[in-house]
Amino acid sequence: MEGGTGKRPAGRIGQVRKGGKLVERSREKPQFGLCTISHREKLLDYVLEAAKDLGFGAVELWGREPHISEKFDENRVQAARRMIEEKGLQLCCLGSYVVFGAVRTRADELVDIDDTLYTARCLRAPIVRVWASDIAAATATKKQWDATVGQIQEACDRAGRLNLVLAAEMHDDTLTDSAESSLRLLGLVDRSNFKLNFEVSHQAVEEKPEDRLQRVLDHVAHVHVRNFSTYAGEDGDRPHWAPISEGLVDYYPLLEILAEHNYGGYYALEFACREGNGKLESLAADLAYLKSLFKLMGRAP
Fold it and tell me: Which domains does the chain have, with CATH numbers?
């Protein structure tokens, strides 16, 4: 499926057909954030200024240097919060690297959950992106599932006392790498503040993006937006990033599903398809394209 190339559904602005009847669309306005990992080579102040200039209303803060320390540093965190506020931006998510039920992650790479929760609370971040293990759901043993579930439950209980939501990224090679495995994990964890950070797979999988989203829709707290011209493994180990309008994934049906479900979270643009001098231009084009899709739905930001 090629993004941005197909015909868009016609109809009256503000209405949608459900059960054979035309009903009013919801009026939840889309909100857009920039993942600061898109500029991992730059200092935080530069990325925040870029986000502001490009027209984003929020940022997802990359949970690593040089944007924030993985160790809690109150002075550093307060400074980061002030920088975000002074730019007139919201912080929609802390993109942490807390891995629950780690198997392959080296011990010196593990991030302490306490440091992360304190950082998120001090930043006033509503959502913390986390990782549900680091192995594919299909290959994980019962012992690995049980360890991951227990650690997430404990973390959710502590996060709940700080009014924080933990959102597991639906990343490949984790226990949330498909809708089926995500729903299994959600059911086992059974915590109201455990949600999903939805994103499309960057591998050529049988699960269609729309089916993936529909099945987990009620549990989505945060959305990553990225696209690619080749899937991982087709031309090297990593996917090749592409403009949102031109990649393999058609985002119109995904955004429409979320909008019709009254999704009120952020759409966070994760990566730029171009580096160097073309990076800001490519991010601006991606944001403009996303806004144009919502305009087609009668939901102009």
Answer: 30-296 (3.20.20.150)
